[in-house]
Amino acid sequence: MTTPAGLDHRILLPASALSGPEPAPVRPAGRTRRDWAADVALFLLAIGLTALSVVEGLGQHPAPVPFAVDTALGGLSCLGVWLRRRRPVGFAAVAVAFSVYSMSAAGVALIALFTVAAHRRVAVAGPIVAGCVLVPFLTPLVRPDVPVSPWWQVLLGFACIAAVLAWGMFVRARRQSLRERARRVESERELRLAQVRQSERDRIAREMHDVLAHRLSLLSLHAGALELRPDAAPEEVARAAGVIRDSAHRALEDLREVIGMLRAGLDRSEEGPERPQPTLVDLPDLVDQSRRAGMRVLLDCRVGEPAAAPAAIGRGAYRIVQEGLTNARKHGRDGQVSVAVGGAAGKGLTVEVRNAAGATAVAGIPGGGSGLIGLAERAGLAGGRLEYGPTPAGEFRLWAWLPWPR
């Protein structure tokens, strides 16, 4: 359908954005490349620290059996690095327990402490820290063959524990900050999309009101005329019935299109070209529709080249005149309406609709009172202004100014 009073349904954003927010990316179940790189680096670090401890132990000529057990526990601790992501607390507890007996497992215990601090709360990491602190005091009880560490080595070990704990807590805090920022960005994105969808729904509702109110008021006016003149000539009855049928058909098409848009989630990606939208050029046809309905409408268009007006300005002026004629049919006293449109580029476009105000609605046509509010909002969004109300002469005046840039 290509009627000038067609519904404006152009979408300002991509349809995928209006149909709803995209789902957040799902983290893969396995390790990512970055995870593999970190695990390999920590595994090699664990092997290096364990190898250094073994070489140092060989220089001290330890007993064969305790040294073999020490080395085996250190090797098992290194293998535990691959379990640190799935079982960080269990891995840390075992590594710390091994380090009480095995000197070669001490480096892996620090890696385990870092893992717990980076993935768990401080309350969970606290017992692991306490275990690391007690290691130098428990080792002489289970390894009499190992000399007691001097006080400066114990303090150095405590400093390493504190540094590793602080590093892990920093990594955890940074990860939490990044997650919070990502959630905040996603929340703001969803809020923006919700605002866009709501704005689009409001625009559709406003357009539907402008179009359907005009068509249904024409239909009601003709039906009321038939009701008041049952003895009218057959030709007049047939003509009025044809107008009623045409108005009802167009109103149903507009309504069907809007409902289809809402059901499809505003996804217009697979549709054909959009219907042409009404502009200043279509004002005479709009006035003729009202005249055929029995209204007396005087149109004074003082725009040199109506086609030169910007599409948005022309469409806004068309809707203002359309709403003015609809209100005149609903509330006018004698059907006399005057429409004046004038302006030029750089001066703006003025629209004025006047009609004799009536005390009650004509033919029982209901009015929700939201049409003028919607017009004021439309004019404000375009950078213009709108005024309406009764005049001292007993008329109702609807006046608007819309910017028309050079």
State the shape: rod-shaped
Fraction of residues in helix: 55-70%
| Model regions low in confidence, pLDDT < 50 over at least 5 residues | 1-28, 268-274, 359-366
Please count the helical segments. 11
The CATH superfamily of the domain at 278-406 bears the name Histidine kinase-like ATPase, C-terminal domain
Biggest beta sheet attributes: 5 strands, mixed
What's the rounded overall pLDDT mean? 78
Structural class: alpha+beta
Query: In what order do the strands lie side by side in the largest sheet?
Result: 1-2-3-5-4
> What distance lies between the first and last C-alpha atoms, to the nearest angstrom?
33 Å
CATH topology of the domain at 278-406: Heat Shock Protein 90
* Highest CATH level, the class of the domain at 278-406: Alpha Beta
Q: Give, in order, the helices and strands.
A: HHHHHHHHHEHEEHEE
- How many individual β-strands? 5
What attributes characterize this protein structure?
Heat Shock Protein 90, membrane, single chain, alpha+beta, disordered N terminus, 11 helices, 11% strand, 5-stranded mixed β-sheet, 406 residues
